[in-house]
Each structure stands twice: as structure tokens, then as C-alpha cells.
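All the exercises in this workshop are built on plain-text protein records. Sequence and backbone structure share a record, each on its own labelled line. The question running through the whole workshop is how a given chain folds. The record below serves as our worked example for the rest of this section.
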Amino acid sequence: MPEDLATQWDSVRRALRSEASELTYHVWLAPLDLAGRRGGTLFVRASARARPWVSERYGPFVAKVASRVLGQPVRVEVVDERWSAPEEPEQAGFAARLQPAGEEILNPKYTFEQFVIGVGNRLAHAAALAVSEMPSQAYNPLFLHGSPGLGKTHLLHAIGNYLQLHEAGLTVRYSTVESFTSGFVSALRGENMAAFKRAFRSTDVLLIDDVQYLAGKERTKEEFFHTFNALFESGRQLVITSDRAPGEMADVETRLLERFGSGLVAALEPPDHTVRLAILRKRARLDAIGGVDDDTLQEIARHLSASVRTLEGALIRVVALASLRGEPATPELAREVLERLYPRATTGPRSLHDVYAATAEHFGVRVAELAAHDRRPGPTRARQVAMYLARELTEESLPSIGRSLGGRNHSTVLNAHRRITALLGAGGTEAARVETLRERLVGEP
């Protein structure tokens, strides 16, 4: 498939996700692949079992959304896995009306009204709302951080949607760091850096998602630094999200981290059971999901604790299986689905491999970095947590744990255990991250 056609389909998929309910999108639309095109017809591939249903129920909807996104009328034909692309696809007359380089579309479903407030995200929500009501006057910059799936992106989109609705005179731009990087690289290759800089530095409110991915992108970091300065010094609002606090970000220059922390830094922490249940109830109501009683929602809330995204995904899977089987969604069905997709860890001893793999994933580092003699803050903290959990959850001795992590001695492991124990006693965001990881490894009591 030509690269430009794949890019166009990505834009269509984003629009489908923003306009369809979560259940419809994830069960029926997300699995669709663009197989090819001939003239004004898009050929969309679905499984043999789903093809008749998707074609009849959702074909016109996909065609309507695709026509709007691509800027010209198109038909949609749903085909099966055996369909092959035309030998000479026509390229002319199929120009996409895509977003400017580096910019992404706001999701209209991510609003403040749809955000469920709890103890772990109250400050972040209040700060985001204050920025929306008083951009550049409340908190600038606003830096939101927390583990994936806790609502950072939701709040970022909510700010953008609020401003577009209530502040018509302001220019709002939302972008992920990956999109910023792609736009920057494209601008360099196309020798249109002036347009790229003008697009980002003339905006009144800049919303940047997943800033941790600046690590390792030297030229992008330099451009982002100057973009940040240009906006901040001219009194424009910046809101930034990351999966970790500024002090925990590796491979990002100190001068940039200092700017990230110069405003308000607010954490989002995992929701407790009450908030998880409220999230599921609101999701079921907003997506008009019928036939799911409160006992079933309670079962999902009890089983999962890690993130909002995981909770919503679990609800979708339970409802989808119930629909395919033609039976109601019950607590028993929920347990069947959840035990298969998200099995609880046992409360018995874990292996060092289990602990190190889970810790590396949780902190966004490689397992090899846990054993490396690397003193950067990110890997160092992850290594200390790995040592703590290895001592707590495995039957390995201190010398054995030390040897497995780069040949360190037992006193290093003991010191790391003491540090993390003190951290947990003090509470706060970092402590919550460690507790979430421990829950994942041993299961809730």
C-alpha cells in the first residue's frame, strides 16, 4: 500500500474512533484494515465472519467519515481476506485533507464532563480546568504525569475541547511528541522549517502529549526547547504530559527539565475501587451499553486496578463476548473473560525474571538497563525498585539478587531495599507507582 494512502487511512481511523462509541469502535471498526482503492472506492478488509455485519451496519458510516476526512466523496466496499489489490491503483485525485505537519485532531469525547474525579487525580483535574478557564494565568506550564492509562491524554484533550468551545479567539494546537518529531523531520526534508516553526510558535495554547519520548531525539529536543521558550516568554500557555515526573526522565537535558518543573507538576495515581466502579458506570451510560448489571461492573472493578484504559477495555471485551454468545453479561462471564485476559498473579514466590521484566516495563526501561552500571535517575530508581521487590517477592538471597543485577554485592541490595521502604513510608506519587507494580506481581489481597 502506498505510504500516503496508509497515512490517509490513519486519519480516517482517528475520526472513526472519535465519532463511534467505544464499544462499536473496538469491536467492529478497529479490526478493519485498508486493503486498497480503485478510483473513488476504498476496499476495507474484515474477517469472513464479521464482513456481512460490518458491511450492512457500518459501511455507510465509514464512507461518510472517510469522505469528510479525505475531502471528496468515496464509496466503501468491505472485502474478505482473499481480496487482492488492483494491479494499477490510480493515484490522482485522491488528495487527503490532512492536519498540518505535527498536529493531531482532538477527540471530542474527551471532555471534563466525561472525566471521573477521584483522590488520585483531583489536583490534576482541577489544574487542567483552571488552565482551560484562565489560560496563561493559572498554571504555566502545567505538567501532568502518571502511569499509562490514568487519564493524562483525556485531560489534555478536555482542555483543548473546552478552549475551542469557549475561547473562539484562541489558537489551540494538540500534538504528541511522536507527531511533533515527524512534522519536524518532514519540515527539514522539505526545507519548510519556517512554516513548521510558525505553526507551533504562533499558537496560543500548546498541548503536548508523551513528552518522555523526547529522550534520544537530539535535534527534536533542541527544536522543542526553542519552541517552549518562544511560547513561554511570550505568555502563551503550555500543557505537557509524561509517564513520569520531570526528575525521573532520562536523556532529557536539565535545562528542559527545569522548565517543565517551573510551573505546576500534578500527578495522576491509580483509581481506588470506588472510582473504578464509577468509571465503569459512566462508560456504560455514555456508550449506551445495556444489559450489564452492577454486579458485573463490580466484578470488573475488583479484578483490575492498573488503569482507566484497561478497565474500559475489559468492559468492552465482556460485552462483546456476551453479544457474540447471545447471552447476558454476568459476573461469571466477566470472571471468565478477565481471568483469561488479565490473570491474577499468584501470591506465591515470584522468579527474578518475573520481577525484572515487570519492573522494566513499568518504568519504561530495558531489562538490560537494570543490570547496567548506569547512574541516570530513571534506570537507578527502577533498579532500586527491582532489588526491593526481588527481596520481598522471591526466595533468592541478597548476594544472588546482587549477582543477577550486574554483579553487585549484597550491601547494595540491602541499601536499595531500605531506600524503597523509606519511600513507601513517606507516601506520594513514587510510592503509589511502586505499590501498583507490587499489586500487579502478587495480586490484590
Remarks:
- The domain at 273-341 is CATH 1.10.8 (Helicase, Ruva Protein; domain 3).
- The chain has four domains: 3-79, 122-267, 273-341, 352-442.
